[in-house]
Amino acid sequence: MERLEDCLSFVIGKAQQQVTKASREALAPFGVTPVQFAILKVLWERDGLNGAELCSRLVLDSATMAGLIDRMETGGWLERRADPGGDRRMSRVYLTEKGAQLEKSLNEAMDRVNAQFVKALGEERAASLWRGLEAIANLSIPERRSTPAVSAAAKATLTE
To answer: HTH marR-type domain location, by residue (predicted)?
Structure first.
């Protein structure tokens, strides 16, 4: 390669910085980071997961996840409870009322972020990019093969 900009890792990294910056700005009014949003999103889909299940879904290590859960518990969004099956070695993570109430607002904020980038790229190019990035992301994770669509809210934002 002749230039740094010809390196896929560099270009993806720069794009990731832009998306993360926009996400941080959108979530900041709620006091939530993009990674905390991801944890909340997973728990809105299925509350009561254990740490290992969250790590697997978000592809994070257990030390990182433990620190995130600690901070989110302190923030009042989550709580740990004993495993209902009686396994004393494991706790499960549940949304608090405060965490559950954030769902609509945070989803709307992230829909706006997604729509911002889809608008900048154009819908066709954005869909192609999304498929390409998912293909790269799924290379080492064969069980993840679904393609999330741009939400109806994000599409509506595009037409406004």
So the answer is: 5-138
Whether the pLDDT of residue 110 is over 70: the answer is yes
- Say how far residue 146 (Cα) sits from the centre of its chain: 15
Residue 88 has pLDDT above 80, yes or no: no
pTM: 0.81
- Closest-CA residue to 103 (of 33, 156, 41, 34): 41
The predicted pLDDT at position 152 comes to 58
Contact 104, 90 (CB under 8 A): no
CB 33 within 8 A of CB 51: no
Assigned token pair, 22:
């926009």
8 Å CB contact between 146 and 103: no
Question: Which residues neighbour 17 within 8 Å (Cβ) at sequence distance 6 or greater?
Answer: none
* Residues 123, 129 contacting (CB under 8 angstroms): no
